[in-house]
Amino acid sequence: RPPKTARPNTPAPEDLTTWDRDHHLHPWAAVDHWRETEYERIEQAEGIHVWNAEGRRLIDGPGGMWCVQIGYGNREIAEAIAEQAVRMPYASPWSGTNAPAAELAHRIAEMAPGDLNTVHFTTGGSTAVDTALRTAQFLNNQLGRPEKKIILAREKGYHGSTYLAASVTGKERFRTRFDRDARVHFLPDVNPYRRPEGMSVEDWCDAKVADLENAIAEIGPERIGAFIAEPILCSGGVIVPPEGYHRRTLEICRRHDILYISDEVVTGFGRLGHWFASEEVFGIKPDIITCAKGLTSGYQPLGACILSDEIMDRLAAAGDSSVFYNGYTYSGHPVACAAALKNIEIMERDRILEHVREVSPHFHARLAELADHPIVGDVRGMGLLGCVEARLGAGTLEEDSRFGEELDAVCEEMGLILRPIFNMAVFSPPLIISKAQIDEMFDILARGLDRVAA
Ligand code: PMP
């Protein structure tokens, strides 16, 4: 266990439990029993491990929330954060700039594909998505075509919790009870595992591309402003669309002047062994990329919306003096940007992208072994992203299955945290994970599946 740094006047653990239960509304809390839920308190972390309040060491399968790329307990990032906080903790992005923000914008522009050279900093993934969607609206207003506003999104996509980001989120439960922008059209599930029996993956790809073409024909391209897509639908269950899908859908969007927004909040910053997956993994150059999470390895909250030169030129050419009225008090926050710069420096120096590419085949070989388990329906993933989906009996609804929670519970007893999503368990460990640690993770998973089956 790493040495504990003393926190003076630390309240008693029982008080923390009570205060958290009585006053802290967590994301996705169940309204009918939120005062009864006791959340596990993580006290310390190092590398790929976290320690819970009882002092038990656990492998952090989800890497925080798909974000702790370089692992926990990194003193270099902590020191960069402290240094910047002492030098200058805040700078208004309206009245001036700051060195870390300027340098980070330049670094991101260098890493991003093609002409994606303009960076608007946000507070996280949702606000990056919101910015991307508002930019599409703004552009079409500027171009004098205010009717081109419908956004195409996909079933099972997850894009965040601000109003617009939640509106384009295609997870069914998100659509109930909360209001949402109605100008969104969802394309059906792209998951190859869900294709009709006997259909080839190539035919499935054709069908999914046709879904987009049909939606455009039905709605009319003059009414569609943007298409938003995660390269891999992560919260939807690590759904990898069929080969060729991204390239073909991007071409269709280009043909109809529909902005293509690639949401790389999870897939960016090394998760698939590259800074961005769009170009290097899937061979596309989107109009806008959103990123967050791995940008700082979770050490500070930060997101970015990266815009193409073409968008910026078209906005400029509109020729009036309209203002880009989007931005946050914490846009380009110097401490968050300093954390991101140090994170990128460490990832480059320690060759983290190369490491991901090197260990991924082993990760997927071990993942593939789980496919033969009698209670497993599908395993899938890419890079350091994985998902195990339960085989469900006829008539059982995916969303009513507790398989993910059950697998997580038994694996936690054996030292591994997973992220349960109904009938699935997903994992995206810190990118520094070694081959031996990958083996340890999959050994626990295999035993966990046996226990759930029993
Ligand atoms: N987009 C994607 C693809 C995500 O996975 C998430 C978060 N899981 C978001 C956007 C929202 O990011 P945030 O929670 O930082 O607002």
Backbone CA Rg? 22 Å
What is the helical fraction, as a range of percent?
25-40%
Low-confidence stretches: none
**What is the percentage of strand-forming residues?**
15-25%
The tally of strands reads 15
Oligomer: single chain
Rounded mean pLDDT score: 95
Keywords: Aminotransferase, Pyridoxal phosphate, Transferase
Family: Belongs to the class-III pyridoxal-phosphate-dependent aminotransferase family.
Protein name: Aminotransferase
Cofactor: pyridoxal 5'-phosphate
Write the layout of secondary structure elements.
Layout (H helix, E strand, L loop, with lengths): L12 H11 L18 E5 L2 E4 L4 E4 L2 H4 L8 H13 L11 H13 L4 E7 L2 H18 L7 E5 L8 H5 L16 E4 L13 H19 L4 E6 L15 H11 L3 E5 L13 H4 L7 E4 L11 E6 H9 L16 H16 L2 H18 L6 E7 L2 E6 L12 H11 L2 E2 L1 E3 L2 E4 L7 H19 L1
Parallel strand pairs: 3-13, 5-6, 5-7, 7-8, 8-9
Antiparallel strand pairs: 1-2, 2-3, 4-10, 9-10, 11-12, 12-15, 14-15
4'-deoxy-4'-aminopyridoxal-5'-phosphate (PMP) binds next to α5.
Word description of this protein:
The protein is an alpha/beta fold. 38% of the residues lie in helices and 16% in strands. It has a 7-stranded mixed sheet, with helices on both faces. The chain has a 4-stranded mixed sheet with strand order 1-2-3-13. Helix 7 (201-219) packs parallel to helix 8 and helix 12 (352-369) runs parallel beside helix 14. The protein is globular, with a radius of gyration of 22 Å. The relative contact order is 0.15. Residues 124-126, 129, 158-160, 230, 234-235, 263, 265-266, 292 line the site of 4'-deoxy-4'-aminopyridoxal-5'-phosphate (PMP).
